[in-house]
Amino acid sequence: MQSFIQFMPTKIVFGQEAEKEAGKLARESGVSKVLLVYGGGSVVRSGLLDTVKSSLEKEGILYTELSGVKPNPRLGLAREGVKKALEFGAEMMLAVGGGSVIDTAKAVAVGAENPGTDIWDVWMGKVSVDAAKPVGAVLTISAAGSEMSDSAVLTNEETGKKAGFNSDIVRPKFALMNPKLTYTLPKYQLACGIVDILMHTLERYFTPVSGNMLTDEIAEGLMRTLIENGKTAYENQTDYDAMSEIMWCGSLSHNNLTGLGRPKDFACHKLGHEIGGMFDEAHGATLSAVWGSWARYVYKLDTARFARYGRKVWKIEDKGEEETAVLAIEATEEFFRSLHMPVCIGGLKTGVLPEEKLKEMADSATKGDTVRLGCFKKLDAQDMYEIYKAANHE
Ligand code: NZQ
Ligand code: ZN
Q1: Which terminus of the chain is more solvent-facing, meaning fewer CB atoms within 10 Å of its CB: N or C?
Q2: Is the full-model pTM beyond 0.85?
Q3: Which ranges of 156-282 does DSSP label H, i.e. alpha helix?
Q4: Torsion sign, CA atoms 134, 138, 140, 144
Q5: Residue 98 Cα, ligand 1 centroid: separation in angstroms?
């Protein structure tokens, strides 16, 4: 068995009315002032924000607000949040929303703990930090897994560069997860979330390191659970059990449980982030748009692994390694299509892109062809370009 380190410090409160625990958990964390972070208004319309505020007030916790987080969250708003947090003396950032909101809260948490350090320098790896203020989350969408992850992704709106920061210091202290809160999601966001959750495990499942049987079995079980309940939820978004399973899959898919003992690949995320940063596309859609092209580009390096994925996850009858592997790729794409998710760049809102854009994105992802991305196959700028090119059709 391969060695690993497991660090999952997030306390989870899962179930109906979990959001009402916000005040109590903030109090337990020893804070008395929080910065409430939320997005473009869904939590105001649903009444969730008021519920969270009441819960804080009940515990005598003071708060101020940072609102207006957009999908592909912007650096500018995070910087504004740092200022607010410092002026107010916020001791915790409480995110009420999805990945974009939680990631903004994480960025503010880093900035507020390290005043004088520009957060983009941290995101660009120019400056390192070893502490952040605590973050709590009330989750409203099953997708990014930020509620338990070590990651936070920001977009620099001046350059169109989207980049992640990864460190255990930003793993949330607690996450409150009430599946009913996800009933109001636009269908498109539900589908994007399901894709993202699947991708977080796929990006760990396809790596060059074998061993850790339990890691594989957990990964495959999670993917089967997600696919089955994803189909049900897409048809009936108020199916509590289906929405619950998806929500828990979302957290476990990205807290590294499905990758213990092996390196992450995440090349498709790098491919997707370039598109998301440049064209403001939804994260999940950027992933489904490139995954099939990535898979076809690399699967021959380990056909047996793709065939196993087909047998165990898609229950494809064994037809020999090559055919089963190809069928597994097709089954994944068919699932994306069934959720009305794009399986090519032409299916994104942006549409088919000019060749120069593809080159630009490949160059940016690999920092001018100086870094190799992924590990199943280490990709250089030419590889990235080839994958984009294969996906660049209607
Ligand atoms: O802004 P509001 O009005 O709240 O609307 C949001 C937003 O428009 C809406 N929404 C969320 N919950 C809702 C709801 N609408 C109605 N009812 C609800 N219950 O959904 C839209 C998308 O929200 P967003 O937070 O952007 O979604 P998601 O959770 O998919 O987050 C995406 C971001 O997370 C990053 C992505 O790159 C992207 O920037 N990621 C973060 C990761 C991490 N921190 O670990 C890992 C991921 O791989 C990903 O990169
Ligand atoms: Zn993702």
Answers
A1: C
A2: yes
A3: 187-205, 213-235, 240-254, 267-279
A4: positive
A5: 4
Query: For residue 223, what are the CA distances in angstroms to 94, 179, 200, 376?
Result: 30, 19, 10, 19
CA distance 206 to 295: 10
pLDDT of the residue at 300: 98
Instruction: Read off the amino acid at residue 386.
Output: E
Q: pLDDT band at 102, cuts 50/70/90? A: very high
- Token look-up 């500018």 returns 76
Give alpha helix (H) positions in the chain. 22-28, 42-45, 48-58, 75-88, 99-113, 119-123, 187-205, 213-235, 240-254, 267-279, 283-298, 303-314, 321-338, 355-365, 381-391
- Could you read off the pLDDT of 339-370 as tens digits, one per residue? 999 999 999 999 999 999 999 999 999 999 99
Residue written as token pair 């991305």: 373
Q: Are 36 and 53 in contact, with CB atoms under 8 Å apart? A: yes
What residues flank ligand 1, with Cβ below 6 Å? 39-43, 71-73, 97-101, 103, 140-141, 143-146, 149, 151-153, 181-182, 184-185, 189, 192-193, 196, 254, 269, 283
Of the candidates 141, 202, 208, 139, the one whose C-alpha atom is nearest the C-alpha of residue 174 is 139
- Band the pLDDT of 322: cuts 50, 70, 90: very high
165 and 135 Cβ atoms separated by less than 8 Å: no
Q: Which amino acid is at 57?
A: E
**DSSP H/E element including 12:** strand 11-14
Closest CA to 8 of 175, 131, 217: 175
- Number of Cβ atoms within 10 Å of the Cβ of 123: 23
Residue with tokens 């509590």: 240
Task: Give the type of residue at 347.
Answer: G
| Protein residue whose Cα sits closest to atom 39 of ligand 1 | 72
List, edge to edge, every strand of the sheet that includes 92-97: 11-14, 174-177, 135-139, 92-97, 33-38, 62-66
